[in-house]
Specification:
This is DRTGG domain-containing protein. By secondary structure, the protein is α/β, with parallel strands linked by helices. The protein has helices at 2-18, 38-52, 81-90, 97-100, 109-114, 120-136, 159-165, 179-194, 212-227, 248-255, 282-292, 308-322, 337-344, 352-357, 386-395, 406-414, 425-435, 441-446; strands at 27-31, 56-59, 62-63, 66-70, 76-80, 103-104, 140-148, 169-175, 198-207, 232-238, 246-247, 258-259, 269-270, 275-277, 300-304, 366-371, 399-403. The longest helix has 17 residues, at 2-18.
């Protein structure tokens, strides 16, 4: 009976929402798995839709990772982290924080749902009430899911069910390729259909650049053959390595570390694949570092805080390589050294502009010092010498102090996936600029 009431409530609410004249069906962006670029595709869709509609609404119906923001009444509000990004970046002043993030699933939420403290009806009412209000203030509505299509099943609110509940068509995002990509899409597509929703199209992400046209041709044929042409291939997006780079601020938050110097580089981007675990002597370290400086302008060196020799060698190298770089605020809008530091590194190797800029890009290697892990050793003996840390500050070198073993810290950095957030507008803007031209908005909107 509870589910019957929910279904009836859903039908009535959808009818009210859709009563707005000529409003297109909502778009629900879902992924085949984690870390495939769902939020990045959502950003590109928002940017494109804002060029075609006066007011674009956005809702993340079910969120997991949340942040605290200040609402229009001055009170603190908890919302999904992607809601903070989209509302602030696109300046969505016509919709409220709570309506953009109607259901949040913090820790213990699933236990409370299983115990009956949270009801299915309350979730449905929150989502559909938010949809009604946002739709009334918007010309088109973009919805973003959480993870793959089945995420949320434990509280009976997975992405497929939510899309169906809200009368939305689904855009599925998958990593590029053919075989494995279609395997993942097939499973998620079936779940969407079973929930009573429709898949409007597919966006393939992170495709090897020289395989884009081949993937576009054969995946288009595959969708037509297997799904009868009912699902459009909306975009094939070539990989852009820069979008996977983390800022030093991201790494500091990840490791709960403390940046001792080089704060002007907090928003500079570093490739977590360019991490060197330094366990060798000084000469070998310097030879390797000098060689790597010809192929990587932003290396990350990880070593133990007691390696005084390595710290001194790094500081000497940093001073030598950066002595002619004029420093500007990291958030400067100028096109000088700071913009190169924050924006340029990590563009794809085939980019002509990048090839022209590469020789002049300043070197900005950073060092991460690990301390405090050996049992039976005095804590002071595991920490860096105070006078060396004074030298770090005097050189204003990007040196970060963290707690943990070198291998553990190295592994955590390597396995980290950078996410889009409002504190990194450079990467957000780069993502939109890269993705938006690869999405066929005419095809997307013609099927609405």
């Amino acid at each position: 009976q509870s589910r019957r009431r929910v279904a009836e409530h859903s039908f009535r609410a959808r009818a009210r929402v859709r009563a707005k004249a000529a409003m297109p069906r909502p778009l629900f962006v879902a992924a085949t798995r984690q870390h495939v670029g769902k939020t990045t595709v959502s950003l590109a869709l928002m940017a494109g839709l804002q060029k075609r509609f006066n007011k674009v609404g956005y809702i993340k119906p079910v969120g997991q990772q949340h942040v605290e923001v200040i609402g229009s009444d001055g009170a603190a509000v908890r919302v999904d982290k992607d809601v903070e990004l989209v509302k602030e970046y696109f300046k969505l002043d016509h919709v409220s924080w709570p309506d953009m993030s109607p259901v949040l699933m913090p820790r213990s939420y699933t236990k409370r749902y299983i115990d009956g403290e949270i009801q299915l009806e309350s979730q449905v009412e929150a989502i559909l009430g938010a949809q009604q209000r946002v739709s009334a203030a918007s010309d088109v509505l973009l919805l973003e899911g959480t993870g793959h299509v089945g995420v949320g099943s434990v509280v009976e609110m997975n992405n497929a069910k939510v899309a169906s509940l809200m009368g939305a068509d689904v855009v599925l995002v998958a990593n590029g390729g053919i075989g494995s990509s279609f395997d993942e899409l097939e499973m998620n597509h079936s779940m969407v259909l079973a929930a009573g929703a429709r898949v409007r199209g597919v966006v393939l992400n992170k495709v090897i650049p020289d395989k884009v046209e081949m993937v576009r041709e054969y995946f288009g044929k595959l969708l037509s053959q297997r799904w009868g042409g009912s699902v459009a291939l909306l975009g094939v997006v070539p990989d852009l390595p820069f979008l996977g780079k983390s800022t030093l601020a991201d790494i500091e938050r990840l490791l709960h570390g403390k940046l001792l110097g080089g704060h002007h580089l907090m928003n500079a981007h570093y490739d977590v694949r360019e991490v060197d675990l330094v366990t060798t002597g000084v000469r070998r370290f310097l030879r390797k570092a000098d060689y790597r400086s010809t192929i990587a302008k932003r290396p990350l060196f990880v070593t133990h805080a007691t390696r005084d020799d390595i710290v001194l060698a790094y500081l000497s190298m940093y001073k030598r390589k950066t002595s002619d770089i004029s420093k500007q605020p990291a958030d400067s809008d100028s096109h000088g050294a700071s913009e190169m530091l924050a924006d340029s590194a990590g563009a794809p190797a085939g980019n002509e502009q990048w090839q022209r800029q590469w020789p002049s890009l300043p070197w900005a290697g950073a060092m991460i010092l690990c301390s405090g892990t050996a049992e039976g050793v005095d804590e002071d003996e595991q920490r860096p010498l105070p006078f060396l840390m004074e030298m770090v500050r005097a050189h204003d070198a990007p040196v970060m102090l963290v707690e943990g073993g070198t291998r553990n810290i190295n592994d955590r950095i390597h396995s980290y996936t950078a996410k889009m957030h409002i504190k990194d507008p450079t990467r957000v803007a780069a993502a939109i600029e890269h993705y938006e031209p690869h999405i066929d908005f005419d095809k997307l909107l013609n099927t609405m």
